[in-house]
Specification:
Helix content of chain A: under 10%
Oligomer: heterodimer
Strand content of chain B: over 45%
Helix content of chain B: under 10%
Number of helices of chain A: 0
Distance between the termini of chain B: 41 Å
Order of helices and strands of chain B: EEEEEEEEEEEE
Number of strands of chain A: 11
Shape of chain A: globular
Order of helices and strands of chain A: EEEEEEEEEEE
Number of strands of chain B: 12
Shape of chain B: globular
Largest sheet of chain A: 7 strands, mixed
Structural class of chain A: mainly beta
Number of helices of chain B: 0
Chain lengths: 117, 118
C-alpha cells in the first residue's frame, strides 16, 4: 500500500514569490493534516481536513497561506507571497475517520523542505 | 487546550543499555497517546499508540511505552538500545472520545534527540 505522497521534496524560492505543495493521502483516509516543522522543533498543525471540510485552520496564517482539498482526496497548500520565516519542512499526514478509534494514528509523508532566500 | 512536554532535548545511552525517553501530557478528557520517530530528512514514522486497555503498549523495533494516568506520563522505553535507534523522537496526544468534541487534532511535543553510542 502506498503511503502519503508529497511533492516536491525540496523547493528553493526567492522571498515574495509564490509556492505550492501537493499531498496525496493514503487511500481511504478521510482526515488530512498539514503541519509545519521548524528546525529542531516538533510539527505544528496548520490545517486539518475531515473529507473536504477544513475543521481546524486556526493556526494557518490566512493572509498568505491557503489550502484546499477538493473532492476530499488530495490537497494543496500554497504560500503567496513567501517570507524568509516560512523556511521549514511542510509535512502532510492522513488518518482514518476518527470514528474508527483503533485506527486513529496519523501517517506522514516525507515532507517538503522549503528554503526562502 | 492540549499539550505535550518532552523535558529532555537529548538522551545519550550506550548500546545494549536500556533507554527511556520521557513524555508528559495535558488534555481534557481521555488521552490517546502516540510516539513517532524521525530520521534525518525523513517524515515521521509511527512507533506505537495507547488508546485504551493495558497500560504497557508494545510497538515497532522493540519499543514499548507505559501509560501512567496519575502521573500523566507516557514514557518510551527499550530494554536494549541499538546504534540504529539514534533519531529524533516525538510524543503526541489527542483527545479520545468523539463525544467530548475533541475530534482528531494531534498535538506534538518538541522532540527528544536520542543518541546511542558504541
Amino acid at each position: 500500500e502506498a503511503g502519503v505522497v508529497q511533492s516536491p521534496r525540496y523547493k528553493i524560492i526567492e522571498k515574495k514569490q509564490p509556492v505550492a505543495f501537493w499531498c496525496n493521502p493514503i487511500s481511504g483516509h478521510n482526515t488530512l493534516y498539514w503541519y509545519r516543522q521548524n528546525l529542531g522543533q516538533g510539527p505544528e498543525l496548520l490545517i486539518r481536513y475531515e473529507n473536504e471540510e477544513a475543521v481546524d485552520d486556526s493556526q494557518l496564517p490566512k493572509d498568505r497561506f491557503s489550502a484546499e482539498r477538493l473532492k476530499g482526496v488530495d490537497s494543496t497548500l500554497k504560500i503567496q507571497p513567501a517570507e524568509l520565516g516560512d523556511s521549514a519542512v511542510y509535512l502532510c499526514a492522513s488518518s482514518l475517520d476518527p470514528i474508527w478509534e483503533q485506527n486513529t494514528e496519523a501517517f506522514f509523508g516525507q515532507g517538503t523542505r522549503l528554503t526562502v532566500v | 487546550a492540549q499539550s505535550v512536554a518532552q523535558p529532555e532535548d537529548q538522551v545519550n545511552v550506550a548500546e545494549g543499555n536500556p533507554l527511556t525517553v520521557k513524555c508528559t501530557y495535558s488534555v481534557s478528557g481521555n488521552p490517546y497517546l502516540f510516539w513517532y520517530v524521525q530520521y534525518p530528512n525523513r517524515g515521521l514514522q509511527f512507533l506505537l499508540k495507547y488508546i485504551t486497555g493495558d497500560n504497557l503498549v508494545k510497538g515497532s523495533y522493540g519499543f514499548e511505552a507505559e501509560f501512567n494516568k496519575s502521573q500523566t506520563s507516557f514514557h518510551l522505553k527499550k530494554p536494549s538500545a541499538l546504534v540504529s535507534d539514534s533519531a529524533l523522537y516525538f510524543c503526541a496526544v489527542r483527545v479520545g472520545a468523539i463525544l467530548t468534541g475533541g475530534g482528531n487534532k494531534l498535538t506534538f511535543g518538541t522532540g527528544t534527540q536520542l543518541k546511542v553510542e558504541l
